[in-house]
Amino acid sequence: MGMSKYIAQRLLFTLFVVLGISILIFFITHIVGNPVDIMLPLQATDAERLALTQALGLDRPILEQLWTFLSDFAVGDFGMSWWQNRPCMEVIMDRLPISMWLILLASLISVVCAIPMGILAAYRPGSVLDRVVTIFSTAGICFPPFWIGLMLMLVFAVKLGWLPTSGMGTWKHLVLPAVSISFRPMGHLAQIVRFEMIQQLNALYAVTARAKGVTEMSLLFKHALKNIMTASLTMIGNDYCKQLGGLSAAVEVVFGFAGFGHLISETIENMDFPLLQAEVFFVAIIVCLINLLTDILYAAFDPRIRY
């Protein structure tokens, strides 16, 4: 199968997934309870309940509601935010790019640090360096990002005064939140790279290459590194999706960073159903696009996946 046909198939599959997620979002909203009862206080009058029911379109047949819901989502109309009294799209676009850049920087930090760590640990399994990398990566996975953020703030902002404690505006405000978020994906990726690299260096082709006189550096970087890329891409993509899906929210709150994760927590607190639906949809779209990109990169690194 050619690359273009493979991409077309994956794109078509992604469109069906997005459609399924949209329908799921619609029905989950109805299953969890009446949005009117959740959004209005207990002392609300019948007139207020009726007005909100009509405003949300909940007085129409369920299939008509579903069609309207899908039609509006298809053109980017997510309705009005009841909490901010602005279009949901406008609210999200104010916050989403901030978090995407923050998490992209965190992902870059984790990749740049984790891949060399994993390779060095795998090159001499059982060595002191291997144990240090294992301990560091395990700690990065175990400690919650917000706690790491508090410790970094205490050292680099409060004690040393090198970086700001909170706020936005300059590149310095990105450093501590990005580093805090990067520890967990860094730990995951370092352990994956270490495990996969050990498997590759002990594989039959590696033994044969050594017998033919191939140097360790050539074997490591020309052969083994390419073979571990599929597993690494999976981890990188999954971690980016997790952070964007809300795991970065606690770090954003700690550093007063008005990002998308922080917005999700605020939306839940304010029971803003239209905005929450739009946020879930945006997360789903981005996750699907990242998975699509990962699949394409898989096929680029390993042509066997296309067949």
Structure, described:
The protein has 307 residues and is mainly α. The chain has 14 helices and no strands. The longest helix has 36 residues. The radius of gyration is 24 Å and the shape is flat.
List the helices and strands and how they pair.
Elements lengths: L2 H29 L3 H5 L6 H10 L6 H13 L13 H36 L4 H15 L2 H15 L12 H30 L2 H8 L4 H12 L1 H19 L1 H6 L5 H10 L3 H29 L6
Helix pairs in contact: 1-4, 1-14, 5-6, 5-8, 5-11, 5-14, 6-8, 7-8, 8-10, 8-11, 11-13, 11-14
Number of domains: 2
Low-confidence stretches: none
Looking at this structure, what is the CATH superfamily of the largest domain?
MetI-like
Q: From the alpha-carbon coordinates, what is the Rg to the nearest angstrom?
A: 24 Å
- Order of secondary-structure elements: HHHHHHHHHHHHHH
Distance between the termini: 6 Å
Structure classification: mainly alpha
**Coarse shape:** flat
- CATH architecture grouping of the largest domain: Orthogonal Bundle
CATH class call of the largest domain: Mainly Alpha
Question: What is the number of helices?
Answer: 14
Essential attributes:
307 residues, MetI-like fold, mainly alpha, 14 helices
In short:
It is built from 14 helices and no strands.
